[in-house]
Amino acid sequence: DQQVKQNSPSLSVQEGRISILNCDYTNSMFDYFLWYKKYPAEGPTFLISISSIKDKNEDGRFTVFLNKSAKHLSLHIVPSQPGDSAVYFCAAILNRDDKIIFGKGTRLHILP
Amino acid sequence: DTAVSQTPKYLVTQMGNDKSIKCEQNLGHDTMYWYKQDSKKFLKIMFSYNNKELIINETVPNRFSPKSPDKAHLNLHINSLELGDSAVYFCASSQQAYGYTFGSGTRLTVV
After folding, report:
1. Mean pLDDT of the B63-92 span
2. Which residues from chain B sit within 8 angstroms of residue A102, using beta carbons?
3. Strands, DSSP E only, in chain A?
4. CA distance linking residue A71 with residue B48, whole number of Å
5. Is the per-residue pLDDT at A74 higher than 90?
6. Is the pLDDT of residue A95 over 80?
7. Sequence-distant (≥ 6) Cβ neighbours of residue A58 within 8 angstroms
8. Mind listing the pLDDT tens digit for each residue in B33-69?
């Protein structure tokens, strides 16, 4: 059973516009959520995170929103830049396990 | 029906021992990976295999050796385990850079 779901395998956004990547999860006990970015032939790199007690975290062009009642989080990138083209993974952590559970990823393509 | 399964989930062993972590995927993907998670939750790629052929071999000690008997399996052998090898190791698979699927991770503790 997939606990972290990214239902859009790919997304194309015009350069300069807002990119919104979505993620749903099933386990209400998750303590922490993370977004990773991955370029081809490289490992995923940490991008931004949010604690389950918050509903928003912002870091430069990146903002993550958490809606606990809907078990949904989203990553907003504003404005989108060509270097943002990558695969983005949503992930969640249960503190007691201290393991990361990953979604399948969404491939973001920024159009010129 | 687990898509990428790693065994064991937890492994506690003494320094100097040799151990293996197994990974199997039933997705029909051509590419499989091993990642190591560091203390800051970063994932560092170790190896990548495509159709049993080694594609990526990052700078890891040669005590770590991947083995891919077929494209559905990628096992990780670690010789002469050291304390610094303690980490969570993730197996993953993908098909043409889309739809990555990660295993649940193996927590290795070297004592």
Report:
1. 93
2. 90, 92, 100, 102
3. 4-5, 10-14, 19-25, 32-38, 45-51, 56-59, 62-67, 72-77, 86-94, 99-102, 106-111
4. 33
5. yes
6. no
7. A64
8. 898 887 666 677 888 888 877 877 767 889 999 999 9
Separation CA B97–CA B1 (nearest Å)? 23
pLDDT over 70 for what percent of chain B? 90
Mutation to test the B interface, candidates A97, A100, A108, A109, most B Cβ within 10 Å: A100
Taking the CA of residue B105 and the nearest CA in chain A, the distance in Å comes to 7
Chosen from B94, B100, B109 to mutate, greatest number of chain A CBs within 10 A = B100
Nearest alpha-carbon partner for A102 in A87, A86, A80, A84:
A87
Q: Label residue A16 left, alpha or beta by phi (over 0 means left) and psi (-120 to 50 means alpha).
A: left
Cβ(B102)–Cβ(B92) under 8 Å?
yes
Mean pLDDT on A44-70: 93
Q: Which candidate, A36, A20, A49, places its Cα nearest to that of A105?
A: A36
* CB count in 10 Å sphere of residue A1: 6
The strand pair at A72-77 and A62-67 is best described as antiparallel
Instruction: Give A22-49 pLDDT, tens digit per residue.
Output: 999 999 999 889 999 988 766 677 899 8
Please, are residues A59 and A48 in contact by the beta-carbon 8 Å criterion?
yes
The pLDDT of residue A110 is above 70: yes
Query: Cα(B108)–Cα(A46) distance, rounded to whole angstroms?
Result: 22
